[in-house]
Design goal:
heterodimer, A: alpha+beta, Aminopeptidase, 2 domains, eight-stranded mixed β-sheet, three-stranded mixed β-sheet, 6 helices, about 25% helix, B: mainly alpha, three-stranded parallel β-sheet, 3 strands
């Protein structure tokens, strides 16, 4: 499992020594319900979660560099493990942060890093995420990171207290932005089976003249449900 | 979103005959599989019409490209028909090495939109102008806008 970090946070694997920190955050009923799981009752509960759920190779502990304490969790679910019907080379991300660390920008910072990891290092094509409609703060974090609303909702009855609480489904396209703000927009769409990286030499030549958006739009990379005439992620350009 | 200028690089604008659509989709699915697995002589036989950069792109974009995705992707290409186009300044580019596929598309576009600018690049394959001469493409883009 690969560790990486941001300015204030370190992404690392969970260890049993993190059980105390996890319990401090996860015993707060305000945290778990927003993410769809019951509050932890004891430190042993937290230890079991670390052993049985977080040790899957794609769930990271978010450690605050300044203190060395774990303040939250972030991970991704590939096709087959996701709650959403996603393409075979797409991924869903999920996260939560302990209540004392809310409204400090940690979540946005971490999600930016996670997006970068999923696109650049893992090569996933699109990232999906969802949030309970009664937790709009999580949706705002997604929007800040470029996710757009798919207009779809879902009931995830497997999750805690979720029978009457739908989740909103958000999506982030694999797209690349370069160039100068305020210049005319140049939209580059590659053909079937070709990545937008084929435009990189051209982008290098034109980045002074245009604001450039290069998208991944073809039917292979968007999964089995996508057709050429449904470029439904263009709202991320707003 | 308003588009002022559009360049289509040998875009598929016409559907294939119905009887050809199925066999070609399955052929393409097989072809994609061979991108990953075949080397040497068989690579030469199947992919000599690809230039290396394009073949690398195929491997890079869908390293786990599933058969269903490929079939659906090509279905979208082979059944697509451009019915109308208006408003923007439209350019259609293609190379002489892909003319057998691209020329009918260009002729269809010309019927729909007589003011389209069609340009044919000698000795070029699909997308080769962008890969081999990005400076030339950049100059043309700047002159268009």
């Amino acid at each position: 499992m690969e560790n990486f970090e941001t300015e204030r946070l370190r992404f690392r694997a969970w260890t049993e020594a993190d059980a105390e920190d996890l319990f401090l955050c996860a015993s707060d009923p305000d945290v778990g319900e927003r993410a769809g799981w019951p509050p932890h009752q004891t430190v042993e509960d937290s230890l079991m979660v670390i052993k049985n759920i977080f040790s899957n190779g794609h769930t990271w502990a978010l450690e605050l560099k300044e203190t060395g304490h774990v303040i939250g969790c972030m991970g991704y679910y590939p096709h087959g493990e996701s709650n959403i019907e996603i393409g075979e080379h797409d991924v869903e991300v999920g996260y939560w942060i302990g209540k004392p660390y809310w409204n400090k920008g940690y979540c946005t910072e971490a999600l930016h890093a996670m997006i970068d990891y999923c696109f650049r290092r893992r090569g996933y094509n699109n990232i999906w995420a969802d949030y309970f409609v009664d937790n709009p703060a999580s949706g705002r974090v997604m929007e800040k990171c470029g996710f757009s609303d798919t207009g779809r909702t879902n009931i995830l009855s497997k999750l805690y207290h979720s029978d009457s609480r739908p989740v909103k489904i958000m999506k982030l396209f694999n797209w690349y932005v370069a160039g100068t703000e305020g210049k005319p927009t140049l939209l580059l769409l590659p053909g079937l089976g070709v990545s937008y990286q084929i435009f990189f030499p051209l982008i290098e030549l034109l980045k002074e003249e245009f604001r450039i958006y290069a998208f991944q739009v073809d039917g292979f990379t968007l999964g089995r449900c996508t057709r050429f005439d449904s470029v439904d992620g263009l709202s991320v350009m707003r | 979103m308003t588009v002022d200028h559009a360049i289509m690089d040998a875009a598929p604008l016409l559907p294939l005959p119905r009887w050809l659509e199925g066999p070609l989709r399955y052929y393409q699915s097989f072809n994609v599989w061979t991108c990953y697995h075949w080397t040497g002589f068989w690579r030469f036989v199947f992919h000599s019409h690809y230039f290396d950069v394009l073949l690398d792109e195929c491997r890079k974009v869908f390293p786990f490209g599933g058969r269903r995705s490929v079939l659906d992707g090509y279905k979208s290409v082979y059944t697509n028909k451009l019915e109308a186009i208006y408003g923007a300044d439209i350019h259609f580019w293609y190379g002489t090495k892909e003319a057998f596929v691209a020329k009918p598309q260009a002729e269809h576009l010309l019927k729909l939109y007589p003011s389209v600018h069609i340009e044919v690049f000698p000795k070029m394959n699909h997308g080769q102008m962008l890969v081999d001469h990005p400076d030339e493409v950049a100059c043309r883009l700047l002159s268009i806008t």
